[in-house]
Amino acid sequence: MTIKTGKVYIVGAGLGTADYLTVRSQQLIQLAEVLVYDALVDESILDWVPSNCVQLNVGKRGGKPSTPQGEINRLLVNYCQQGKQVVRLKGGDPFIFGRTSAEIQALTAANCAFEVVPGISSALAAPLLAYIPLTDAVMSNCFAVMTAHDPQALDWERISQMDTLVMLMGGRNLAEIVHQLQRHQRSPQTPIAIIRSGGCPQQQVWVGTLNDIVRKTAHQTLSPCVIVVGEVVRLREFLKPKE
Question: Do the beta carbons of residue 53 and residue 28 sit within 8 Å?
Answer without folding.
Answer: no
